[in-house]
Every structure is written in structure tokens, then in C-alpha cells.
Amino acid sequence: MNKRILRDCLPRLAVFAAAVLLWECFLTRSQNFLLPTFSHVATGLFQLIFLEPRFWEALYISNQALVLGYAASVLVGIPLGLVAARLPWMDRLLNPYFAVLLVMPVAPLIPIVIIALGLGLAARVFIVVSFALVFITINTRAGVRSIEPTLVEMAKSFGATETQIWRRIIVPGALPAIFAGLRIGLGRAITGMVMVELILVASGLGRLLLEFSGRMQSDMVFATVLAVIIEALVLLSAMQFVERRIAPWVPDTSLT
Amino acid sequence: MIRVKNLTKEFGGTDNGGGVLALSDISFEVRDNEFVTVIGPSGCGKTTLLRIIAGLIPYQHGEVSIDAHPVVGPGPERAVVFQSFALLPWTDVLGNVTFGLDVRGATKSDSQAKARDLIRLVGLEGFERRLPKELSGGMQQRVGLARALAVNPRILLMDEPFGALDEQTRRLLQEQLLQLWERERKTVVFITHSMEEAVMLGDRVMLMTPRPGQVKEMIAVPLKRPRPPDIEKSPAFVEIKEYLWENLRAMQTEQP
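The joint structure predicted for all components is written out below.
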């Protein structure tokens, strides 16, 4: 543990401190009114977390869409990826749609979704899903595809049934890629959550951000973005913790 | 007894032909408790033949039967050892060796006890909790062998099991396999591309020709059992090996 702190944390802290120092020096000299200094952002974050009840309310509202949308993406995305990888006809059927979803810019469609689903939670959940789902699905599919065919053959040679092959070979074999998909999907879901609130549905963190920028409180805008980043990092670490438990054989590919 | 009669296997064709002929009109028998090695140039379909006997791939014409029962899929009397080891990277040695037993519905305590016996038998005691990636190639194939033996098959189908190993490891495993075979006298079909290996292990050597795969000759190996490690120096061994080489060289030079 001590070794890890020395090797990873100290250099990181050093780089962070250097960046903050540079930021601070540059802005205090340039007299730019709109760009906040780091100390302002830090104070803003403190205010936001401890003195601003609307922040927690906004966080709660935004996270409703995030939690529901992400959960739906996981619950639909993983099985869809598994099925697409294992059944060739399903794959042929779904492939073009995956490709479309993968490259489609979702943001311009937000107004249409709002028209169709209204300004409520349903629309926000739908947008989060459309941001996250396809990444989870294609990663799952790629994970299943990457399993060595001899492993499936080996299982068959012992008389394994299709259920046993799924449970003992395919799911554990695809887990590393599934987790990679879950991480990317989480990042996308958070982007979707904030974007829909910014563009049309003024609620949650998006509404807070709009208010702050409307009042030219750039330090509070930065602080809110920072809060979102912190939340995302906490979620990613939690996911990494789960991954280590479930799939300890996987080489570490996470970012934290 | 394994009985193969007029077996023909075509890949990728339709009912009207047009595919690649992998095996053409193959007939041979392997008696109970007999060790038959199969050798031939690459592309002679020896692995395809083994996979058909294992029940892993279908065949078009001819008969393949075990004790007069036609082969329609994998069966409990057969177990396969793979060239690429086919170990599950996410589970330890014990988990890999118990795989076949678990799939066949053995209780956990039974399969673990049985697996521990076999791990001891192949000389991997103390490595039960290691993951495959922590083992050398030779040790990995010992795990593969233990996994196959754990289900107590009457017939062992070995697909170039030592082909991916270095020379010294291969020699050691050959000696170990001979010792094991002396004890249990299972029926073995052993695919190889090494002439020494074919003669050293087999009661008979089946020589195959390529494109399409056909049986050129069944050669009896009149070497006494148990075979000592220095058997390679005996005149009979050298003679059969030379004979195999003459034939194999002729096949290679015939190629365009």
C-alpha cells in the first residue's frame, strides 16, 4: 500500500498542485472577470455542498434519470449483446441498428424526444438510455466474440448443455469486456443526463448550471461540473471494486 | 472399440458438393486398451478426424461408432485433450480439473476429491489454487490431462497435446503419459506431427496422406511395453521412424 502511494499518488498530487498553481497565477495576473480562479472554484464547491440546499435537490433529481436510465441500459444492453453474439441471425438483424446508434449524434434528437415523451422523467430516462445502451451492448457482444472457440468446444466435449456453456464459459469469458462497456456506458449516461437538462428540460443539475451561467457565476458553474466529475469518479471506483470481486483474473484496464 | 468405416467429411459445401474434401473414405479400428497414434502432413485432416470421433463436428458419409453405438455427439466414455490446453483463465487448477465432473453433475465434494487425486497423479500437488496464466505450458497441459482423466473416460482423444510445448517438456510429458497409460491402459487416439512421438507412444501408427485425408497405412510398432526412456536407440524404433520419414517426405515433395 505504501509503495502504491509513493508510486502513484505522490506524482499525481504533484502534477495536480502544479496545474492548480499555474491556473491560479495565470488568472490573478490576467484580471479576467469571467474565468474563475481555482480558489474561487474550490470555495464554490464548498458552498455548493454545504450551504446550497438546492444543489442536493438538483443532484437528487438528476440522479433519478441517471439511475433509472443506466439501470435500464444495463438490464437491456447486456442480454442484447449476449444474444447478438451467440445467435447469428439476431446479429445480422441488429447489426445495422447498432451501427446507427453508435454513430448517431443524440443531442439534436432531444427536442423530438421531448415532443414525443413530454418534459418529465420519462424523456430524461430515454435520453440517458439512448446515450449509454449501445456502448454496453457492443462491448458485451465483442466480449462474447473474443472467447476462444476451443473453450466452448472443450465444454461441449464434456457434454455441457447450452445453459452450462453460457453460465460457465460465455458469461465469465465476456465479463472483462462487459465491465469495460459498463464504464464507458456510465460516462455516456452522465453526459446524457446533463445534456438533456441543459438543452430543454430545465431541471436538476442542468437547471442549476443554467442559472449560474445566467448570473455569470462562472466559479459556481465550474464547481457544479466538478461535483458531477466527483460523482462519476465515485461511481467508477465502486464499479471497479465490484469488478475486482467478480472478475479478479482480469488485467486492470480501469483509469483510477 | 472405435470403428470408423468409409468416413468422408466435406467442409463448406452444399448437398451437391462444392466444398473442400477434408477426409475421404477413411476406415480403421482402434481396439480396446490400444494406443493408436495418427501422423500425417499438415492438412491431412487428422484433427478433423479426432473431432469427429469426439462428436464435436458432424460428418456426411460413412460410420463412426464406439462399441457399436454410432457417434452422434460427445459421450461420457470419451474425453479430449486439446493442443491449446483449453483451460479456463478465470478459474484455478482445481476449478479447471473439476470442470468435466461439475458439468456432468457430480457433487462438489466428490469432484473436488477426485480432482485432487488427479492433480497429485500428474504431479501438480500444491498448485491447486494457481491460475492457468501462472503455470508453464507443460503444467497447463498436465491440468488439461488431469481434467480429461477426472471424468474417468475409457477413451482418451488427444489432439497434438504436446505440440505447443518445448522439446524438453514434451519428452517429460511423453514419459509421464506412458507411465499413466501402463497403469490404466485406456484406449487412446493420439494425433501428432512428431515421428518420434508417434513411434514412442503408439501400439500402432496410422499414417495419413493430405488433400483429401486418407489412411495410407497402419503400421504396427513391435516394441515391448513398458517402454524405457532410451527406446529411441533401439533398432526397431529407428527403423519405423525412418520408414515414416520416407513416406512423409515423399508426400511433401509431391505437393505442387
